[in-house]
Amino acid sequence: MNNQVNGIVIVDNNSQNKEVIKSICNDVDVCVFIEIGFNSGIAYALKVGINHAVNHFNCKWILLLDDDTILLEGAIDKAFKIFENLPSLLKNRIGLIALTSVNGDCKIQRVVYGIFSGSIVKSDVAIKACCRDNFFLDQADFDFYAKIRELGYLTLLIKCKLIDHKLGTLLWIPVISNIAGRPLPYELPWRFYYLVRNSSILLKEGKMDFRFYITQIFGWGIKILFKDGFRKFIKPLSLGILHALLNREGFLAPIIFE
């Protein structure tokens, strides 16, 4: 990846293999390793990384990647060739370009609910919009995209495979996988809590439409219901909605949902 960018900032959230990561980073001239020392959540880690990149690399654009995303060879050049071929008036309005892991015709289109990983963001936009660290994990990326649009910029997506990225753990879910005939993406109940709580907050704030809200909560919740049972489904669901109504954000210990 270092042959596609001018600098690399790795922010470590107290990972078990941080010494290995640090050693690899030290072998790359343009790599900076920042150790937070605890699991601060993705939003806070990104805020730290973006601030460092802007202040030390004087960059115009920032590419966000998580630890399970691989940037394909030539992806950045391809993305910016597509960008440069756009009309000047449109280019000035673009705040973020999302790279995807799906095959397509490489046409550019608007995206509302995008993820952090694979997003290329104008640095002056990123510093203003990133990040809602009280969300801790899930849906902080949706809030990020919404804030960019609130600043008057477009959030766009290039529809072709420029990264490798897999979302969630694939598991065989009773009944549902039998119907689908394959393992399905699955997240633990404590992750479902963050999804419910933070989505409910975004719904209240008008940053998420009701149809999308219901679809994703049903899609993730039904897997927990069939795999883990009713209690492990209803607790994060009800607690997530309650905390959203009370405007309670921040970290909640996973042990609560065991």
Task: State mean pLDDT (0 to 100 scale).
Answer: 94
DSSP, total strands: 11
Low-confidence stretches: none
Strand portion: 15-25%
CATH superfamily of the largest domain: Spore Coat Polysaccharide Biosynthesis Protein SpsA, Chain A
Helicity, as a percent range: 40-55%
How many structural units, i.e. domains? 2
Shape: globular
The ordered string of helix (H) and strand (E) elements is EHEHEEHHEEEHHEEEHEHHH
How many alpha or pi helices? 10
- Under the CATH scheme, the architecture of the largest domain is Alpha-Beta Complex
Task: Please explain how this structure is put together.
By secondary structure, the protein is α+β, with helices and mostly antiparallel strands. The protein has two domains: 8-165, Spore Coat Polysaccharide Biosynthesis Protein SpsA, Chain A (Alpha-Beta Complex), CATH 3.90.550.10; 170-257, no CATH class. The chain has helices at 18-26, 42-57, 75-84, 88-93, 123-129, 140-150, 176-180, 189-204, 210-228, 230-245, and strands at residues 8-12, 31-35, 61-64, 69-71, 94-100, 107-110, 119-122, 154-161, 163-165, 169-171, 184-186. The strands form four sheets. The protein has a five-stranded mixed β-sheet with strand order 3-7-5-8-6, with helices on both faces. Strands 1-2 form a two-stranded parallel sheet. Strands 4-9 form a two-stranded antiparallel ribbon. Helix 2 runs antiparallel to helix 5, helix 8 packs antiparallel against helix 9 (210-228) and helix 8 (189-204) runs parallel beside helix 10 (230-245). The mean pLDDT is 94.
